[in-house]
Structure formats: C-alpha cells, structure tokens
Design brief:
The chain has 278 residues and is of the alpha/beta class. It has two domains: 187 residues, P-loop containing nucleotide triphosphate hydrolases (Rossmann fold), CATH 3.40.50; 53 residues. Helices cover 44% and strands 13% of the residues. Helix 2 crosses helix 3, helix 9 crosses helix 11 and helix 10 crosses helix 11.
Length: 278
C-alpha cells in the first residue's frame, strides 16, 4: 500500500506544472498568461503618442497625475476608465505609461486578461516580491450575472488581509460604468426578494475604484482634429477640403464617430497616399 501511494504521489507531481521561476523584470511591459503561469515580456507595446489623444484632456491629465504619484511612491488610486467604445480608453492607459517612463520615472505595466482573473493572487505574489512598481492593466472588463470572476478582482482592489501590494496599481477599462449590463441590474432588482441587496455586491465593485474616468462620444470637430493630428504626425499631406469631405463620408458610412473610426479612416487614407506607417 505504501508503495502504491508513493507511485500515485510521484505521478501527481509529474502532472502538476512546475512553479513559475522568479522573473528578472528586465522589460518595461509584460503579458500574464496561465497554464502554465508565466510573465511574457512585450518587446513593443502597441500604443499611440499621448499628444494624439484628442477630446479626453481631463481624463488624460487626471490619469497622468495619478500615475506620476504612484511612480514616485506617493499614494494613488486604482482607476476605472469607462464609457463609449473606441474613444481611447486602453490607448490612454498605454500612452500614460509611456509618458511616465519618458519622464524618467520607473514604472512597468502588466496586462491581465479578464479570463485570467482567478489567477491574480499568484500574479500578485510575484509582483509583491519584485523591487519595481507595476500598473496591472485589464482591458474590456465586464461581468455577466453568473460570472464569479469579480470575486478575484477584489484581491487587487482591496487585497484581503494582506492588503493590495504597495507596488501594484490596478487600471481597468470597460464600456459599462458598473461593470455589468444595466438591463441585468434592473431585472435582478425587480425579481429579487431583497431588491436592494440583489446586485449590491457586483455593483459596488466599481465603487472600489478611487478614480472613475468617463469617455463619451466625440464631436465632429474632435473627430476631424484626431485625423489632422494623425496626418501631421505621419507626414500625410492632403488638401483640407478633400480631407474633411472624405473623413465625414467615412464616419457616415460607419454610423458613428470615435477615435477608432478616425484611425481606421486615416489608415485607409495613408494607404491611398502611399505612406507607410511605422
């Protein structure tokens, strides 16, 4: 019996993944993956210059100042960037990180996908032990009515008995202010025995972010200013009247205006003008 148990234990050890070695943190950006756990360095982050983000001045300045405070070892708040799709929420997080780095402040960024939230405690254990400061970034964060991932998020926002690591700050983007659909909130409130408590746990999750930064649909002038900025930055020269007419036609065919639509138009324009984008 003893031999059989020993063989079973040995087999289980072979099946179990080896613990992740301590990262050397030589890069500025990382992506967290599981199965097995690993922090993969990101050689080149896909981002735009902070000066090209038009129409989000207040959110830009607030997030930049909060990030500077954190990089300097001062108190700072977790931030939720919520609102209209395509208006530069994730672009702003990456641009702010680049700007703070350019100012000579030590700061690294780690991207965490929503699906990997249950593993966040293991990730935090590695970050807590590192002699660096980290922005933990989760893009497009939201939860459905039966989704339990939000409980893992509390480890980042509140930290439980250990507290959130002093060297980790959490930034998330979402199209939803309360991280869950409004119709689901109303449905649970109308059918629950105690309506006030039915969704309190999930709705209150967004209250745990110290900063709420709202992003709203851009005006036509802001949309055109975005395109002008891209043209200037990449050396695309087009007569103003033609640029305006084509840009307005482009957004009309898409049925919306946003920073994403402006970039898509500019990519098409640059291709037609024979300009390569670096």
């Amino acid at each position: 019996m003893t031999d059989a148990l020993a063989r079973i234990a040995a087999a289980l050890e072979r099946l179990a993944p080896a613990p992740m070695p301590a990262p050397d943190f030589g890069a500025d950006a990382y992506a967290w993956h599981t199965a097995p756990d690993r922090l993969e360095p990101v050689a080149k982050v896909a981002r735009v210059d902070i000066g090209l983000l038009v129409g989000v001045n207040r959110s830009r300045d607030t997030l930049l100042e909060n990030t500077r405070h954190f990089a300097r070892g001062l108190p700072a708040n977790n931030a939720l960037l919520w609102g209209a799709r395509g208006m530069g929420k994730s672009s702003l997080v990456k641009a702010v990180h680049a700007q703070v780095r350019a100012e000579g402040l030590p700061l690294k960024i780690v991207e965490l996908s929503r699906e990997d939230l249950p593993s966040v405690q293991r990730l935090l254990a590695h970050l807590r032990a590192a002699p660096h400061r980290f922005i933990l970034f989760c893009d497009d964060l939201s939860f459905s009515h039966d989704d339990q991932h939000y409980k893992s998020l509390k480890a980042v926002l509140d930290g439980g008995i250990e507290g959130r690591p002093e060297n980790v700050l959490f930034y998330a983007t979402s199209n939803r202010r309360h991280l869950m659909p409004r119709d689901m909130i109303e449905n649970e409130r109308s059918t629950a025995i105690t309506p006030g408590e039915a969704v309190e746990e999930k709705v209150s999750l967004s209250d745990r972010f110290g900063l709420w930064l709202g992003f709203h649909p851009c005006t036509q002038d802001e949309y055109l200013a975005m395109i002008d900025g891209y043209c200037l930055a990449h050396g695309v020269s087009v007569p103003p009247d033609r640029l305006r007419a084509e840009a307005i036609e482009w957004q009309a065919t898409r049925g919306s205006r946003s920073g994403r639509v402006a970039w898509q138009f500019f990519c098409d324009l640059a291709a037609r003008e024979g300009v390569r984008l670096e």
